[in-house]
Amino acid sequence: MATLPSLLTLAAVLAGCGSTIEGQAVPEGAGAGGASAEFTRLLTECDAVTDEQIAEAVGVEAIERGFFGAICRWDTAGAGAPAKVTFNWFETGSLDTERETAQRLGYAVENTTVEGRRAVLMRPPDDPASCGISAGASTTGIFGWWVQYAPGAAPPDPCAAAVTLARLTLDLSS
User: Fold this and answer.
1) Longest Cα separation, the chain
2) Residue 17, class by beta-carbon neighbours within 10 Å (0-12 exposed, 13-18 middle, 19+ buried)?
3) Which DSSP state fits 45?
């Protein structure tokens, strides 16, 4: 015999199944026009610099793509100090916000330029193997690169690698 709570749950489920939704069903990914056109380049920002250019800038032989989304990540391998490389592109971001956030985190912050654009170089405290740079994007917003070498090895300068990646990002001929 059914209990009152189970009968109420069944009634709620059946009531939800009886509603009608207006519109035309389309298979997933088959939408056309409208808002979906805004996202045609959603992940192409991760290809602003080639994997080979990233590996060369960081000083390693090989690179493996990791997570790609709002933030792109790579891990390096081969000769050279292992590193993690991160790229971000915020179409509505600002350098002031990046600077303020880095300062709140206690990072050493330095104003600089990359290919004539304002930029902010950031170094986390107590981690000389990490460095990031944010710069004004060639269109709107900002982009940033972070290079974090593994502790223990004698890595190259992470700021030099981050700046090189920022230059490559702004080099429209690459």
Assistant:
1) 78
2) exposed
3) G
- From the list 59, 136, 49, 42, the residue with the least C-alpha distance to 87 is 49
Q: Can you give the pLDDT at residue 23?
A: 63
Tens-digit pLDDT profile for residues 110-145: 999 999 899 999 999 999 999 999 999 877 889 999
Distance (Å) of CA 48 to CA 9, 79, 140, 171: 52, 24, 15, 9
Cα(130)–Cα(149) distance, rounded to whole angstroms?
A: 6
d(CA 81, CA 126): 18
Structure tokens at 159: 């700021």
Which residue numbers in the chain have pLDDT < 70?
Answer: 1-44, 153, 172-174
CA–CA dist 111, 75 (Å, integer): 28
